[in-house]
Amino acid sequence: MSVGKIRLLNDKLRKTFTGGKVMLTVGVCDLNDNDRAELLNRVRTFDKFTANNDPNQEHDFGAIDFKGTTYFWKIDYYDNDYLYMSPDPTNEDLTNRVLTIMRGDEY
C-alpha cells in the first residue's frame, strides 16, 4: 500500500470534508455555532504533523487546543459496509473514510 496515496486521501477528507463522512461528537456539537465553525476550520488547516503524532505518515490524527480544551480528530478506514477495517485504504472503491472530531475527554 502506498502511504503517499493514503495521506493524499486523508488530507482531501480533512481539508475539504469530502471523500468520506465527517462525524462530530456531542462535545463538538454542543459548541456554539461560531466556536464550532472555528474548530472545524482548525481541523481543515491542521499541519502540525510530527513523528510523535503521525508515526505512519498517513495524516490520520491530530490534536488541537481550542479555548482551553483539547480536541482530537481521527480518520478511520472502513469496508463498504462499515463493519470492518478496509482491506486496502488506498482503494476508494473498497474504503469508506470516517473523520471523527471530538473533545479530548470523549476519546
Strand content: 25-35%
The largest pleated sheet is described as: 4 strands, mixed
Could you give the order of strands across the largest sheet? Answer: 1-4-3-2
Structural class: alpha+beta
Separate helix tally: 3
Low-confidence stretches: none
How would you briefly describe this protein structure?
The protein has 107 residues and is α+β, with helices and mostly antiparallel strands. It has 3 helices and 4 strands. It has one domain.
Tell me what you see in this structure:
- The protein has 107 residues and is α+β, with helices and mostly antiparallel strands.
- The protein has one domain.
- 28% of the residues lie in helices and 26% in strands.
- It is built from three helices and four strands, in the order αβααβββ.
- It has helices at 3-16, 26-29, 33-44; strands at residues 21-24, 61-66, 69-78, 96-103.
- The chain has a four-stranded mixed beta sheet with strand order 1-4-3-2.
- A hairpin with a 2-residue loop joins strand 2 (61-66) and strand 3.
- It starts with a helix and ends with a strand.
- The model has no long low-confidence stretch (mean pLDDT 97).
What is the topology?
Elements: H1 3-16, E1 21-24, H2 26-29, H3 33-44, E2 61-66, E3 69-78, E4 96-103
Parallel strand pairs: 1-4
Antiparallel strand pairs: 2-3, 3-4
List the defining traits of the structure above.
3 helices; 4-stranded mixed beta sheet; 107 residues; alpha+beta
